[in-house]
Write a structure and sequence with these properties.
Blueprint (H helix, E strand, L loop, with lengths): L1 H5 L16 H38 L4 E4 L5 E2 L2 H11 L4 E4 L8 H92 L28 E7 L5 E7 L4 H11 L8 E5 L2 E3 L17 E7 L3
Parallel strand pairs: 4-8
Antiparallel strand pairs: 1-2, 1-3, 4-5, 6-7, 6-8
GO cellular component, one term: cytoplasm
Protein name: UBX domain-containing protein 1-B
Keywords: Coiled coil, Cytoplasm, Metal-binding, Zinc, Zinc-finger
Length: 303
């Protein structure tokens, strides 16, 4: 100390041996370090205590369930929330600190029973829906089949009508062609007569009258319908009335549309007199084939 007072105005470094401490003064720095260390530990402990307290408070306020804000119903898991949202259409949910009371054994059994009832009801509803859909499909299939049959029948009728019109046109064209041939023959005759100065035939010339014997004929009935019975290969019979001037092709088409003995090719024949009709006979009227006023036609294998 005395040296410090004497050299207070000097910048000379202080020698170490200048300081001399008593035993108490020597231990003072150590005590100060211990005190500071203890204070730091106390401060750290207080900080940790405050952090623990905050964590405990956070745990106490942590969400223990989920709640629907629209109906106030509580749920344990996210899956229950999703199911509730799909079932009810609710969209507003939030966390809740209220803990849902666990179910007792009786409550669990009751819940299981309810679930089994719901599952059974859903299964019955699904079965009813499947039966209903199957019935609707069957009705639709039958309706479609009937419509197809009607369309096919209409097409066949239209085809028959077109065939009849074509046949009529062919006959008319044949008649007109024959008439043209006759007219051409008559013109050729006239040209030859004019070329060779031949007199024209006198239609007024009469041959000597010869007494003729009066011939008495019995009146012939004209039938305009033909009642045809068709005997199929399986023994069943079909009966239909046709016009006397309808062609045999109409009978064949009727058999094709209504037969019940399969769809194999067939021919038509009669037993009395025995005759197997050919393709050429299909364009012949029934009256010319001797099938009026009634006849029995047999369906047989192709001859």
């Amino acid at each position: 100390m005395e040296w410090l007072l004497a050299h207070s105005d000097s910048n000379e470094p202080v020698p170490q041996e200048t300081f001399s401490f008593s035993d108490g003064e020597k231990n003072l720095p150590i005590q100060m370090e211990v005190t500071e260390s203890a204070n730091q530990e106390v401060t750290a402990n207080e900080g940790e205590s405050e952090a623990v307290t905050e964590v405990d408070e956070e745990l106490l306020t942590q969400a223990k369930s989920l709640k629907c804000d629209e109906c106030n119903k509580k749920f344990r898991t996210d899956s229950e929330v999703e199911f509730h949202a799909v079932k009810t259409g609710h969209q507003s949910f939030s966390e809740s600190s209220e803990e849902i009371k666990p179910l007792t054994e009786e409550e669990k059994k009751e819940q299981i029973k309810k679930l089994e009832t719901i599952i059974k009801q859903r299964r019955l509803e699904r079965q009813e829906q499947e039966k209903k859909e199957a019935l609707e499909r069957e009705i639709s299939r039958r309706k479609t089949g009937q419509e197809i049959t009607q369309v096919r029948q209409k097409m066949q009728e239209e085809e028959m009508k077109q065939l009849a019109e074509a046949k009529k046109r062919e006959k008319l064209e044949a008649k007109q062609a024959r008439q043209r041939v006759l007219e051409q023959i008559e013109r050729d005759k006239q040209a030859r007569r004019e070329k060779f100065n031949m007199p024209a035939p006198n239609p007024q010339a009469t041959s000597p009258t010869v007494p003729t014997k009066e011939i008495v004929t019995t009146p012939v009935e004209n039938y305009d319908q033909a009642r045809i019975q068709v005997r199929l290969m399986n023994g069943e019979c079909l009966t239909q009335t046709f016009g006397a001037n309808e062609e045999l092709a109409a009978v064949r088409l009727f058999v094709q549309m209504n037969r019940t003995d399969g769809s194999t090719p067939f021919s038509l024949m009669t037993n009395f007199p025995r005759k197997v009709f050919t393709e050429d006979d299909m364009n012949t009227p029934l009256s010319k084939l001797g099938l009026v006023p009634s006849a029995v036609i047999i369906v047989c294998k192709p001859q």
